[in-house]
Amino acid sequence: MQGQKTPLLSAFTILGALTAGMALVGCAVGPNADIQRARAAVTSAQHDPQVVTYAPAQLRDAEQTLNHAEVVWQDTGNRIEAANLAYIVEQQTNIAVAKAQENVTEAEAQRLADEREQIQLRGAQVAVERARQATRQAQEATARAQLAEGELAALRARDTDRGLVMTLPEDVLFDYNSAMLRPSAQHDLAPLMIFLREHPDRTVAIEGYTDNLGSESYNLDLSRARAGAVRNFLTLNGIPSDRVIAYGYGEAYPVAANDSEVGRQQNRRVEVVISYPGAPLAVR
Predict the structure, then answer these.
(1) FRET pair for 129, CA 20 to 30 Å: which of 102, 111, 207, 222?
(2) One-letter-per-residue 3-state SS of 144-159
């Protein structure tokens, strides 16, 4: 008799599991404040005719990242990842607005250039137009310099003979003796990712370094794994793999003495070397 009851009990057990599973699937996460703020920024940009007209590609990047953030939030409910993606959306939206303003300025400059050409054809005010051209070029050079300074500030990079060098301490990206990026590392790497998207002519080398504690071979492997983790983050976020290389140097090239914890902490780092426009990437 017990052998006959077992199938019926199993059927009820399976039915109960299926019912519970369907109930879980039907549960949806609520609104996310970070994503709502990012959506508001994108919506504002979408209603700005200048952004729509003069920065469609940058606006599309923000829209696509926003869509991805919403999918991640609905599918996983991961607040950290949602916050990081929302931050990237806001940065991309700011870039779209800035790009639109830049292009509007260029369009206005072109309009003024066309007017100047007509005046020159009529043979009038040649000297005045030349003066205006020189002034405009000086203003554009100043604007380019300010833009470059702003980008360097966002990257926290320094100008060197190897290229732009961005130094990220170990504890910003990784836990001690770990090569897995912390969730918060996405926030710190977002400016680099956005910069590389906006400058497709630049290549980058990711270099990992350690202190001298532990064996030389272990430190070399750890530095390579950490450089590879940063490279994977960039390529997974749309940076072509042929623009990013990764190296691990272990305990070589220390920037401080390893005889104190302060010095060792400075040596445990990841350096990002960004090439100059038109120049090959300088590696060690």
Answers:
(1) 102
(2) HHHHHHHHHHHHCEEE
Q: Averaged over 154-170, what is the pLDDT?
A: 86
Cβ atoms of residues 256 and 268 within 8 Å: no
Q: Give the pairing of strands 157-160 and 163-169.
A: antiparallel
pLDDT of residue 151: 59
Q: Cα separation of 2 and 20, whole Å?
A: 27
Helix (H) or strand (E) holding 24: helix 2-26
pLDDT of residue 130: 81
* DSSP conformation class of 276: P
Mean pLDDT, the chain, rounded, equals 84
CATH H superfamily, domain 156-274: OmpA-like domain (3.30.1330.60)
pLDDT at 121: 84
Residue 140's CB is within 10 A of a number of other CB atoms, namely 13
Segment (H or E) for 6: helix 2-26
